[in-house]
Design a protein that fits this description.
Length: 444
């Protein structure tokens, strides 16, 4: 996996006909699967994301590689399971002096090598100091927040420390909601790119909403209360937070139109993990939520819009992982995805061509450093319609037939011992493979 970058991207040998597309990856934080109109909610209004899904392809069975922030983001940016890049722990706190292993190659590295301008706007959460900041990991431009979460969306600090940066310079902002702030910065970037259309771009726009603290603007709270008078106060706050975020995403989609960028820009939308149940975010109909290995923690909304390539209104139940974005972008840009990636290119599927990955299995891992769990990991594996999992380092294995029991109500681990053992063997292979890479820590 640690290979020289220039040997990975044979762009000149495999250029596609026509102009290289731009890419925007819009990434929300703790987005409940059911907290979007286009994914089933009857009480939440998300017209802009609904329209994005309507004009592109909606994926109903997409998963993240880990049910919490940092390892999920690490997988997204590297196309590899988080244990393989040293990032299996739950979160990286701002005081930590580690991040992705320095020899890992990111999607930004690859696209930069292919002639793309690369930018990250918004939440990073993969390290707060060199060599773990965006500018060290392939992003030529960064305007956002290095830390894990904000204690206040209007004052943008974590534990009293300001982690806002423009590239490596501290940014002082106060009073503007962070979701609006990130949208403003992304809009400025797109406006600049509209004057340089000879150079394609990749923009990773990572909102920290709707991650707690649940703090929507007051006018959005009043709007939801008026529309849903019987809704609980906690749920009103959660709904208003998502609806405000949807409006800001709508601003970005409008910017693409205004700057004449929409027709040649692929827009991906997804989240880092499922919604947080204690904060009244909804993952219905799936069981569980953030941190869980039940589908509520792992299954996320996923949609892609690509004018002229994806047929409007397309829908897919293909079972994939969000890090499939990595090889999809590389191949769409005219490159050849690396063979050692765990991710799979979705390009044939997006183009409406025959597509299948019959032997694919999905693996999930989280290392939990809290309390008495001292860095122990827990895992899950989906294969042939079955899921083998445990839901904490201290719990036993469970087995579910997702085809017959998609809501994971009946554990059949003891009823199907032979299948369970086959899946245990396959899970062990992933654990052994991941164990070849030291997990992140100060010893790096």
């Amino acid at each position: 996996m640690k290979i020289v970058l220039t040997a990975l991207f044979a762009l000149t040998a495999c250029l596609v006909a026509g102009k290289q597309p731009n890419f925007i990856l819009i990434f929300t934080d703790d987005q409940g699967y059911n907290d979007l109109g286009c994914f089933g909610s009857k009480t939440i209004k998300t017209p802009h994301l609904d329209q994005l899904a309507k004009k592109g392809r909606k994926f109903t069975s997409f998963y993240v590689a880990s049910s919490v922030c940092s390892p999920s983001r690490a997988a997204l940016l590297t196309g590899s399971y988080p244990k393989r890049v040293g990032m299996a722990k739950g979160v990286i706190f701002p005081s930590a002096n580690y991040g992705l292993h320095t020899k890992e190659v990111t999607i930004a590295d690859m696209l930069k090598e292919a002639g793309y301008a690369t930018a990250c706007v918004g939440k990073w959460h993969l390290g707060t100091a060199a060599p773990n900041i965006p500018n060290d990991r392939g992003f030529a431009f960064f305007h956002g927040f290095l830390g894990d979460m904000m204690n206040d969306y209007y004052h943008h600090k974590r534990g009293g420390v300001n982690w806002l940066r423009k590239n490596k310079e501290v940014v002082e902002e106060n009073g503007t909601h962070a979701t609006n702030l990130f949208t403003n910065w992304a809009d400025a970037y797109l406006k600049d790119r509209s004057t340089r259309k000879d150079e394609p771009f990749f923009l990773f726009l990572a909102y920290n909403a709707p991650h707690f603290p649940i703090q929507p603007p007051k006018e959005w709270v009043e709007k939801v209360k008026k529309r849903e008078p019987s809704m609980s106060e906690e749920r009103v706050q959660a709904v208003a937070f998502v609806e405000h975020t949807d409006e800001q995403i709508g601003r970005i989609l409008k910017s693409l139109e205004d700057y004449d960028l929409a027709d040649n820009t692929v827009v991906f939308f997804t989240s880092d993990n499922g919604g947080s149940s204690p904060h009244f975010q909804e993952n219905d109909p799936w069981r569980g939520g953030k941190q869980d290995h039940y589908d509520g923690g792992l299954r996320v909304p996923f949609a892609v819009r690509w004018p002229g390539t994806i047929k409007a209104g397309a829908k897919s139940d293909y079972q994939g992982l969000t890090f499939d974005i990595f090889p999809t972008c590389i191949e769409s840009a005219g490159g050849k995805p690396r063979e050692d990636l765990d991710a799979v290119s979705l390009l044939p599927l997006l183009k409406g061509e025959d597509f299948s990955t019959p032997d694919r299995e999905l693996y999930f891992v989280r290392r939990d450093g809290g309390g008495d769990r001292v860095g122990m990991a827990y895992h899950a594996l989906i294969k042939d319609g079955y899921k083998l999992m445990h839901n904490s380092p201290m719990s036993g294995l469970e087995l579910y037939n997702l085809t017959q029991d998609p809501l994971e109500t009946t554990d059949i681990f003891k009823k199907e011992p032979q299948r369970a053992q086959r899946m245990i063997t396959r899970m062990e292979r992933h654990i052994q493979r991941g164990g070849m890479t030291p997990w992140m820590g100060p010893e790096q």
